[in-house]
Predict the structure of Inner-membrane translocator.
Amino acid sequence: MKTTSSLFRPSLGIPLLLLLALLAVPPVAAALGAQFYVGFLARVLIYALAASALNLVLGYAGLIGFGHALFIGLGAYCVSLSSLAGLESAWPQLLLVLVSCGCIGALTGAISLRTRGIGFIMITLAFSQMGYFVFVSLKQYGGDDGMSIIATSRLGAGIDLGSVLPLFYAAWGVLAVTLLWMHRLRHAPFGMALRGSRQNLARISALGFPARRLQLIAYVLSAILCGLAGFLLANLNAYASPGLMSWQVSGELIVMVVLGGMGSVFGPLLGALAFICLEEVMKSYTEHWMLIFGPMIILIALTGRDGLMGALHWLDVRCCQRGASGRIDATAIVANGAKQ
């Protein structure tokens, strides 16, 4: 005999309900005349995708990198530069994102993975800053001011990603597929070996797994996903800027992953939603919101080791304990009835 509480797992049910609730935002916002929230939550979905990409490297492989903003910026500039050249179709632009982010991710990853710890952090940060200063120096493409996108990407059949509604659903769909892929990857041999390399790289290598190669593959896949997030972000803003490659963006992604829960499937989604919503609320009260927001994030990280997903896993345990006590009580009642 099972109770209702034992059937519901908060760590799975709450994020899934949240993801479905986000899907219902556009029609509700249209009915209420609050279109701002569609664009705002589209931004949340895009950053959740970028945080999921970083989670593959940070949460699964245990590699702390400060360079993923480079690939977001590359994805954005693939849209702006191809638009400037007269290319408006999204599919060739996506191919350009795939090739450029994949190749640069393979090159920078192969070099960065020769180092460990603080060395890996610094060299990924250096690559990101190199990309930033390269695009700052290109005055013909806006330099430090960035460049507006002449024509946003078109998927065909009249679907323009420059419109908020198609972009929202595209970002939601890509994020949903990514989260499903992350869930399957977590329990696949590749994912398990990758997670093992986070714990003990030498032991995984001794077992016959090419740990370095697996980490490089994860890094390249992460770069491509970040490039895809940059592609969507460029269409949302109709703008590309070197600021997308700055170390602050990489730092924000790390905070989102840590806040949501490193190594979890839904942690990046929860972390991105909490981070961006808290930021927006703080901005509405004071222009010195960072003085409040910074200590708040530090406090959350210190008190919740596994982030928001850790709190949901704690609820899982509580539900299981309640369900177990319910089954024990039911068994006792049946036993007493049999005696009588």
About this structure: The longest strand covers residues 154-156. The domain at 4-339 is CATH 1.10.3470 (ABC transporter involved in vitamin B12 uptake, BtuC). The CA atoms of residues 187 and 193 lie 10 Å apart. Confidence is low (pLDDT under 50) at residues 1-6, 328-340.
